[in-house]
Amino acid sequence: MRPRPALVLGAIALLIVAGVVAAWALFLRGDNVAPLALPSVAPSAAQSAAQSASASTAPGSAGASAASLPPASGAAVDAGNIPGIWSIGANSVVGYRVRERLANLSADSDAVGRTDQITGTVTMASSEGAPTVADAAFSVDMTTLASDRQMRDNRLRNDGIETDSFPTATFTLTSPVALPADAATGAQIEITLHGDLTLHGVTKTVDIPAKAQLNGSLIQVQGSLPIAFADYGITPPNIAGFVSVEDNGTLEFLINLTRA
Prior knowledge:
alpha+beta, 8-stranded antiparallel β-barrel, about 15% helix
């Protein structure tokens, strides 16, 4: 007995609905991760926040945020001991933020991937009592980027940012940054990092808006930069025209600098 057309069409419809639900669950639920930000509380309060945060906010995970930063230890930084070489410290993170789409439907929140595999140094100088960022260079191991979806992370190995082919991203400061004299007080200050960003094998000169502050023995810097994928030769991932990624995203970072 041949199956009735209505039953066949019904079965196909159910499969399509199941596929849409599965795609939404795998790709479009969104990570619902807050953007990185400098802690605006005293170190002791930050420690309390860290203790109450969930395990998903471990450094380097997609959920890591400023609230998970432990208090700084060691001698506090002041105007007299800012000059010198500083290196990447614990709990530093760099990552991406991008919106995914299912057909014509946008995800309810951004997909977020982050890593704590960052190396680099910053040279701080002083001019007439005011601190200056004289030099800086950073490198990120892109193969260690992790989101809350292993399928997404695996896809990026050979698609989108193609981490297997372009395992490293770098930023080199090309213009010194003069800081205000009150930077040594620990107040949050706004700065612009002018330099060369290399991503997906393409180097572009960029101006990254950022904020910086002293926190105990740390110099903390947070910033983000909109990225148009076409500028870096990145083809947004697309699965058969069904699941896709918007043609732009955001690079974000929160760096803790410790004296080298």
